[in-house]
Amino acid sequence: MKPTDISAPDYFHKVVDCQWACPAHTPVPEYIRLIAEGRYSDAYMINWKSNVFPGILGRTCDRPCEPACRRGRVEETPVAICRLKRVAADFKDDITQRLPRPAAKNGKRIALVGGGPASLAVARDLAPLGYHCTVFDGDPKAGGMMRSQIPKFRLPDSVIDEETGYILGLGVEFKGGQRIDSLKQLLAENYDAIFVGSGAPRGRELDIPGRKEAAANIHIGIEWLANVSFGHVDKIGKRVIVLGGGNTAMDCCRTARRLGGENVKVIVRSGFEEMKASPWEKEDALHEDIPILNFMVPVAFKHVAGKLIGVTFQKVKAEYDDKGRRNLVPSGEPDETVPCDDVLVAVGQENAFPWIEADCGIEFDKWHMPKVDPKTFVSTNPKVFFGGDAAFGPKNIIWAVAHGHDAALSIHKMVSGEDITERPLPEVHVSSQKMGIHEWSYDNDISADKRFKVPHRDKVIALKDIRAEVELGYDVKLALGEAQRCLNCDVQTVFAAPLCIECDACVDICPMDCISFTENGEEDDLRQRLKAPSPHHDQALYVSGDLKTGRVMVKDEDVCLHCGLCAERCPTGAWDMQKYLIDMVHAGSTCQSKARSAA
Amino acid sequence: MTYIAKPKFHHPGLKKNELGYTHRDYEGKISTLCAGCGHDSITASIIEACYELSIEPHRVAKISGIGCSSKTPDYFLGNSHGFNSVHGRMPSVLTGANLANRDLIYLGVSGDGDSASIGFGQFAHSIRRGVNMTYIVENNGVYGLTKGQFSATADRGSKSKKGVTNTDNAIDLVAIALQLGATFVARSFSGDKTQLVPLIAAAIRHKGASFIDVISPCIAFNNHAGSTKSFDYVREHNDAVNRLDVLVGREPISVDYAPGTVQVVEQHDGSRLALRKLDADYDPHDRLGAQTFLARHAAKGQIVTGLLYVDPDAEDLHTHLDTVETPLNTLDEKALCPGSAVLDKINASLR
Q: What are the residues facing B60 on neighbouring strands?
């Protein structure tokens, strides 16, 4: 293999698995260290810059970072990254002085359709640059689905008010209660750019016999959740069936438990394991005495005199074809009818753009989705951008934020007359963490603690009050313990081949057997010859140039603890621990400057 | 020196030996030696050899004297018996322990100061008695703990870190061991684990006095130009006569066979040593030949490494003394003190 080019910004970025996995590339280890130091406001601001909604995401994020967390590869569970984010939000001081000031207007006007996370992220990036941003939303308050669909017992209004408030406070104009019914009209108002962040607002129907006849007791999940959220619905029957296996289904069933549902069941087509809902959300539902029945396909709503009495299910089993694809086939068992008073249908969400006229220059694909460039988020109309669920279908808040950042950059470049396809490189800082002999600026003593549980409100109390937040969040002590579990993957092991005397000290001390000195070869061959098995080919090998004996140093980045012992035991300083920070390019940061080389 | 404990986490894919242990289970405390010390590599090699032989840690006694090398038993086999004895007195403590309990595996760990100066006599006598042990000298040619004076194994003409030339003749412990009748003699280099690990494993399996001289560069005081025990010098002048694989049961310790003559030596305990000759003229069963070979190469400034001599049918001190099979420390009082009638009988036989 060729010597690894560690100056390529992506190389070390991939080693920070959590940050690499985060769509917004939040510098996770950096903020976790700040939490450990008790610098909650600083930790919050790092989050605020990257993901815009630390308090909201710290409660609701789908956490792509956690399955990626290196800790999950050396012990059972990853670091509770998401809930540590909440700690930063919970314990921070007043940070309003640290927010950007409303800027002098630059005369450019941007319309943002929808007041959810995507639009607000765009506004957050553009308002400080002087853009006049106008956010339109059908609901009276900002937040979009974060406010309408996520139950208050998971995400209190106060948190949404605070974090949407920070953005609106930058001089963003919010027009609540104004649903945009016509893109054509909006285009006619001559905005410099239009951003569509209207989400995926339509719940998918379940068109099986009895749907029309029993309609009074069959509710579409996200609509029902929104009605609960805005106080239009405050009760439900005693026996409730929730159809669907995603996170919306989990929100539906837990909400139903709080509105009078005593016997609430979730019934899914797939197996329990394959459900789309996050494991922790399933856990929370089970904890609230909600059974999840699987491999049952709804075939009919049973009704008597217009009144729903139950749902009939066909029993199925999973079969896998030779390509490993799963098919659900009838198991042969008799159909089962589960009695109920109400049904909540949470079988998916769809996009709907009835308000986009055919002659607006927006082309749609065969799935009726707008054609959107996945890098620049521009549609086929160069002035109209899409982001969040509106761009590529239902995803999570963190994706909407990431889209927002990229779309804001595109809008800024477009309005400035630049080529939006030219994306500036991120800025990268790499600096040694050596403070003295065997002393580092980070705590390299690896904690052996298991993941700390987030305290929950007592179930009896939680189920009585739909607005009582179930998770209480870590206290300071638990947060410190959890923060110490972070392996500081952003503090990189950097190897200088000319200094190495091949004494093997690093090989001998490495607790994970990451380091080998061996003859060079092709990657597949090298992976066979390392000191420990190297099964994860997505994890890079760090290969040095030729050493004096003709061998090379090969480090498998896979399970490195970043404990720095290689550097501590190195007599010549050939190993050093260097902190890698990457600044993703946002509108107005360095994006106007030329691409610069990293590190 | 490192102040934090080595993390307990280990690579999730680490192989386990027949006992279900990973090599991490054979570790001791974290080393307090200087960063890069050759001794730490020897420590790692001992760990590797014990892991590969699936040795039960409680069956090992590690005994040492004084010095940097003699600190190392703290860094390996944390669950084994250990005795950090007086300077140069490791061999007599080991001999005593061995006589009391012949069932344990004895690892004597010493340095060039401990064995070639203050304990030279002790070293000599334990070898000539044929104590069943693995005697490892971690040889760096200097007194590291007292800041780098020449030791008795420093080559004449080599230079100290300060530039002083050594005018004394060097003791070659390998030559002495051969002369005194050691039945397993090897030399290796801390920077070459593929050679060292099988040598240690073979020595442990050898019944009789095994001696391994391991050149182990002192990073702090003896790794400069002019030193003959530096990484660079040893790598340039290393003349390996053979490569060794130890075959115990099913698997060879290393499967790194390259073309070349492979000679299999069967030891007393059934273990087999697969020797791949690198030097066609070298015969590891010829004690006299080995001595001549060593002397000739030493004169040329070459460091001969590998398995230099092995007598697969060696006997040990217990055989010579005709002691009972049962370890003395487990004999009961009746067996140890058979009474005055037996004493009278013995006395009578001597009159």
A: B105
The Cα–Cα gap between B116 and B205 comes to 25
**B216 interface with A at CB cutoff 8 Å:** no
**Cα-trace Rg, chain A:** 26
Task: Name chain B contacts of A505, Cβ cutoff 8 Å.
Answer: 35-37, 40-41
Dist CA B119 CA B99 (whole Å): 20
Q: Mapped to the 3 state alphabet, what secondary structure does chain B carry? A: CCCCCCCCCCCCCCCCCCCCCCHHHHECCCCCCCCCCHHHHHHHHHHHHHHHCCCCHHHEEEEECCCHHHHHHHHECCCCEEEECCCCCHHHHHHHHHHHCCCCEEEEEEEHHHHHCCCHHHHHHHHHHCCCEEEEEEECCEECCCCCEECCCCCCCCECCCCCECCCCCCCHHHHHHHCCCCEEEEEECCCHHHHHHHHHHHHHCCCEEEEEEECCCCCCCCCCCCCCCHHHHHHHEEECEEEEEEECCEECCCCCCCCCEEEEECCCCCEEEEEECCCCCCCCCHHHHHHHHHHHHHCCCEEEEEEEECCCCCCHHHHHCCCCCCHHHCCHHHHCCCHHHHHHHHHHHC
Nearest to A570 among B3, B36, B235 (CB): B36
Q: What is the pTM of this model?
A: 0.90
Q: Which of B43, B46, B55 is nearest to B17 (CA)?
A: B55
Q: Is B227 on the interface with A (CB under 8 A)?
A: no
Tokens, residue A520? 């060079």
Looking up tokens 């950059």 gives A409
Interchain contact, A74 vs B217, CB within 8 Å? no
End-to-end CA distance of chain B: 64
In the structure, what pLDDT confidence band is assigned to residue B251 with cuts at 50, 70 and 90?
Answer: low
Paired with A298 in beta bridges are A313
Cβ-nearest to B12 among A74, A507, A511: A74
Residue of A nearest to B47 (CA): A508
Measured between beta carbons, which residues in chain B are less than 8 angstroms from residue A572? 36
Subunit contact B7:A448, Cβ cutoff 8 A: yes
- Half-sphere exposure for B333 (CA within 13 Å, toward CB): 0
**Which residues, 6 or more positions from B68, have their beta carbon under 8 angstroms from its beta carbon?**
B33, B37, B39, B111, B138, B140, B144, B145, B218
Backbone angles phi, psi at B31, to 5 degrees: -65, 140
CA distances from A427 to A360, A399, A491, A582 (A): 37, 21, 17, 6
Q: Is A488 on the interface with B (CB under 8 A)?
A: no
Is residue B43 within 8 angstroms of chain A, CB to CB?
A: yes
Give tens-digit pLDDT for B214-250.
999 999 999 999 999 999 999 999 999 888 887 765 4
- A-B CB pairs within 8 A amount to 96
Q: For residues A551-584, b (16+ Cβ closer than 10 Å) or e, as one string?
A: bbbbbbbbbbbbbbbbbbbbbbebbbbbbbbbbb
Query: Phi and psi of A99, rounded to 5°?
Result: -80, 155
Q: Does B144 touch chain A (CB under 8 A)?
A: no
A66 near B CB under 8 A: no
Query: At a CB cut-off of 8 Å and minimum separation 6, what does A453 contact?
Result: none
Q: Could you report the per-residue pLDDT of A499-548, keeping only the tens digit for each? A: 999 999 999 999 999 999 999 999 999 999 999 999 999 999 999 999 99
Q: CB-CB: which of A532, A561, A569 is closest to B36?
A: A569
Query: What gap in Å lies between CA A74 and CA A259, rounded to an integer?
Result: 43
ipTM of the complex: 0.90
